[in-house]
Every structure is written in C-alpha cells, then in structure tokens.
Amino acid sequence: MNKHLSIIFYRMIINNLLVMIGNFMDSNNSTLEWMLHWSLPKYSPRNSQVRLINEINVAIKKGFKNIILEAGTGIGKSAIATTLANMYDDSYILTMTKQLQEQYLDDFEEILVEIKGRGNYKCNYKGSCDFCIKAEYNLRRCCDCEFRIAFKEAQKAKNVITNYDFLYYGGVVNPILDSRELLILDEAHNLERKMLMLSSSELNREYISTKFGIDIFEPVMHFTKSIYDLKRNPEYWIGICNDLIRECKKRIKKIEGDANKSVQVSLDEFESNPSKYSDFDYVEKQNLEQDLKTFVEISLGLSSKDLIIDLPDKDIILDNKMDISAEFKPFSVVDDTQNLLSLGNIRIFLTGTLGSKDKFCKWNNIDPDETHYIYEKSPFDVAKRPIYIDFVGRMSGNGRRGPKWKNKRAIDKVKELLDKHENEKGVIHTSSNEQAYWIINQLKDYPLVFVGGENRNAVLKKFSLSKGNSVLIGASIKDGVDFKGDLCRFQIIYKIPYPQLNEQVKYRREIDPKWFYYQTVMALMQAYGRGIRDEDDWCVMYIIDSSFKELFEYNRGFFNEYFTEAVQKEVKG
User: Fold this and answer.
1) Helix, strand, coil percentages in the chain from 3-state DSSP, rounded to 5
2) pTM assigned to the model
3) 382 touches 396 (CB < 8 A)
4) pLDDT tens digits, 93-104
5) Do 372 and 67 form a contact (C-beta atoms < 8 A)?
6) How far apart are CA 71 and CA 56, in angstroms?
7) φ, ψ dihedrals at 532, nearest 5°
8) 538, 369 in Cβ contact below 8 A?
9) Model confidence over 546-567: pLDDT tens digits?
C-alpha cells in the first residue's frame, strides 16, 4: 500500500470510528478527542470500549483520582488502558507478571517502552546486570549496557510498561523513578496480596547455614524452644539478625581491606583484562551488602513490633529439610501501597474480578469518595462456558489418614473427566503444589504437566506450542495466563483455593473474616476466566470440592454475574 492509499485508508477508519462514537456519546459530557489517541488504529473500537472510555474520561473530568474498571474477558481492557495512556503526558502500566508485560508489548509495541529488573539484562562481564563490576571500581559504565539503555529509554518514553515489582523497588524502596500523570494497574484485584509479598523478608535456613554456619532452627532441633515460642519471641530473631549483621560487617571490612591494598584500576586496565577484576570477592561483597540490608530491616521491623513471624511446621523442621525459611511479614501494607499509588496522579485499576468496590477500597486504604467504579460484564455466551457442580466430598481440613484432599473418590473423578476429554487440552487447578505432585503421582498414565516455580513460563510456552493433548496442573495457573482456543477446553477445580493459613493470613482473617473468603472467591473467578478468551471460544469447568457450596451460598455478593450465571446444578452428559 503506497503512502497516498495509506492516508485514505486511515481517514476511512477515523471517519467510521467517529460515526460509531457519535452513536454512544452523551452529548453533555463526552467528547471525540480521545479518538485521536486510539491505540489500535487498524481496528475500530467495540461499542463497549467506546462507552467505557467515555465514562472514564467523564469521571476524570469530574475530579475522581481513582477509577476502577471491572470488565470481563472479551472487553479489551488492554486497548482501553493504552488509549487512555496515550491521552496523557506520561504513564506507567503495571502488570503482575513479566509474561503479561511482554503480551502488552507484543500488542502495542509502537506506543510502549518496556523496563524490567536488572537481572533480566545481559551483562558484558558477569552474565547479568544484578551486580555492576565497573561500579565497584568507580569506572565509567558500559556505553552499551543493556539495562542502562533500557532504563534511559523508559525515562524518556511517554508510556512505560513494567511490572509491580520493578515499580515498587524503583519507585518506593530505592526511588529512581519519578511519578507520572497516569498510573494503570492491571489485575488490580491482586494489589494487596502483591504488596504483602513485596514487603516481606525471609531468613532461608539453607542459605544462612551454608554461608554463615548458623542453623536458625537450632532451638527446635534441640527441643530447647517450641515453634510457638519462636513465633511469639521476636527477641530470638533479633539476636540471630544481630549476629548476622556483625558477621556481614566483618567480612565486608576484610574484603575492602584486601581491595585497598590493590593498585588503582584504570579503565584501560579493566577493559584489557576484565576477568582479572571480576573476581569472587567483588560479587561476594555485593551479596554481603544485600544480606546486611535484609538483616537490618528484619531486626528493626521486629524491634518496632511491625512484623509477623511466620515459620514452617515443626515436622518439616525436624525432618531437617533445608530449603525452608523464617518469614517476616508486615501487619499492614497500606503505607507501601499508598507510596506506590502516589507514583500516579490519576490511578486506573483494571480487573476482571473485583467482587466489592467497598472492600477493595477499605483493604487498600483508597478513599471511596474519590473512586469511580465501573462494571462491564463479558459478552461471551454463557452456554459456551458452563460451570458444572460434580462434588466428591469436602477437600478442606484433615481426616484420620491425613488431609482430606488425598481423596480416592476425587482421583477417580479426575480420571473420569480426563477420559471424557481425552482428545483435548485442559487445566487442573490445585490449591498447592503439594497437591499437584500427589495427583500426578496417582495418575501416572495421564499426560499431566506441572506448572510452577522458576520454569513456569518455559512450561507454559512449551504447552502452547505442543501438538499433544497434555493437561496442565498446579496452583499458579489462576492468574496471568491466557489459554485461547484448543489450549483449554476444560478445567477442573480440585480443591477450593482458600489462602494458605500462615500467620499473616490468620491475622488478616481475625481482624476481618470476610477478607479470607474474598481472597478465595477472587482466585476461583480468576481460574474460571483462563479457559475462554474470545466469542468463538468454549470451555467447561468442573468443581469437585463440596466446600464450594458453603462458599457460594454465604459469599454470593463477592461473585460477579459472569460467574454466577454459569453455575449449573448438575453435570450434563
């Protein structure tokens, strides 16, 4: 297509869009200005997108600082988000995962600039930019440093796509990022849970033991203190941290003393033989400095009584399992959340499942009077997305022989459903990885593929490209993934995804019992949304845990219409 025809083509698109918008405009409040910023110029916006963008613009003009858009699958929230971003001087768009970040970038490459954590960029000398060797020697940084180039581009860019983790560390913990006019938070229903994770610290047993020769659970191993004592005794952990702080300072001082004896390094010397200066001591010093910071933060948090102590079960400790941690979690993250939100003058919260505007505002310390809420149901035909109730028993709690989810009837039911869909791909949602491993072990003759851990994204990519009829299983498939078309024709909820009862969850449940059930409903509705992504798609869901009955009956207000209308009384066929 030549330049002249291209101009005519885009003019035709614009004219069509203007006509379409005119049909949906409120003559007193809406304008056509945003059409110039539509982020998908090759496609006309859907009627619902026109209406929603207009409503958001009206709300902003009225002075609302927070806009919540709860819109189901098929509405096109990302196109709405990027169009709004185009309308302002500058913006941040946040995703929960790097995978979703990349998806945004693929769809809106021309208007977004990406930035991620240093560890995602290749270093010229050590493999990643987590540790900058040249910084240690006060040398001029690499002119071709991938992270520095990406960061500078992001600073100059109008619209930046990043993730919650990077903006939190780069905008709150170590402020190197400035606030922007617009902050768009995708998958905002996870905001509090994400902030709780980002604000937590841990002492890993294996790491501390290997590096410093201290078993943090020694009193439990020698039966001098109980788990209960350690959970209620911050002084013990403050003492551990203080010992570690002293050791870190001692080792750092030694490394610096050795380095001071060295001849001053010139840039030419470094460039001619970088491996000579890329030694273990430098990397170790960086690690020790990070360790020191963590130990100090834990000690100060415990001293000021701002942290909850969360420990593994006694049996796990006594089994001498090493890859376990003592976790230190804040009672509240409202301050950190507010600091994050302050990076945008106007905040737009996008979600497919919110449940309750009032609860969301309360738990994230957002002023409801400054918040405009919009709900838009997904247009997908309910007949193509049924939820079948097929209970085999209650999966929560423990029985005489262990946890109730170790259930033969449940395994038999999963077999039955897998046989029914033997020529189709699907997903089994568990509430823990332990469940997933147990089910896989029980069903060795079926093509089950575990998803979770560090290789999660690699497994998902391989699954999406595979031709076979494998079935994904795990606890981390409820958010941040899209299974279009034949990638997912059925889903099984093995156990209702109640939050794991750690000390922090217990505390939150005590002060507000509804919070616990809200988190459960959000996870369940998110899982439901994975299987159908466009109007021609179809996917069935089976719930085999009878705990759902009580959850559904007593927390109906948290479930949106899209979910409730799909629930069937019995399995058909």
Assistant:
1) 50, 15, 35
2) 0.82
3) no
4) 999 888 788 889
5) yes
6) 13
7) -135, 120
8) no
9) 999 999 999 999 998 999 999 9
The confidence band for 180, taking pLDDT boundaries of 50, 70 and 90, is very high
Number of DSSP helices (H) and strands (E) in the chain, helices first: 25, 19
Cα(209)–Cα(216) distance, integer angstroms: 8
H-run or E-run covering 168? helix 164-168
Instruction: Over range 269-288, report the average pLDDT.
Output: 70
Closest-CA residue to 479 (of 537, 549, 429): 429
Report yes or no: 535 and 379 within 8 Å, Cβ to Cβ. yes
Q: Which among 81, 82, 12, 17 is positioned nearest to 50, based on CA atoms?
A: 17
Lowest mean pLDDT across 88-97, 121-130, 554-563: 121-130
Cβ atoms of residues 462 and 527 within 8 Å: no
Q: What is the pLDDT of residue 10?
A: 54
Domains by residue range for the chain, with CATH: 3-112+157-197+334-376 (3.40.50.300), 200-330 (no CATH), 382-568 (3.40.50.300)
Cα 167 to Cα 187: distance, rounded to the nearest angstrom: 15
From residue 373, give the alpha-carbon distance in Å to each of 34, 88, 180, 190: 20, 21, 22, 17
d(CA 35, CA 340): 30
Residue 75: how many CB atoms within 10 A of its CB? 21
Q: Which two tokens stand for residue 241?
A: 């941290």
> Which residues on neighbouring strands pair with residue 449, listed in sequence order?
472
Q: How far apart are CA 504 and CA 308, in angstroms?
A: 6
Element at 136 (helix H, strand E): helix 133-136
Q: Which residue has the tokens 């609860």?
A: 359
Kindly list the strands in the beta sheet with 307-310, ordered across the sheet, starting from the edge strand earlier in the chain. Answer: 201-204, 325-330, 307-310
Whole-angstrom distance, CA of residue 224 vs CA of residue 237: 15
Rounded to a whole number, what is the distance in angstroms from the first to the last CA of the chain?
Answer: 52
User: Amino acid identity, residue 280?
Assistant: F
Q: Which amino acid, 84?
A: L
Could you read off the pLDDT of 437-469 as tens digits, one per residue?
999 999 999 999 999 877 887 888 888 888 888
CB proximity list for 279: less than 8 A, separation 6 or greater: none
Q: What Rg, from alpha-carbon coordinates, does the chain have?
A: 26
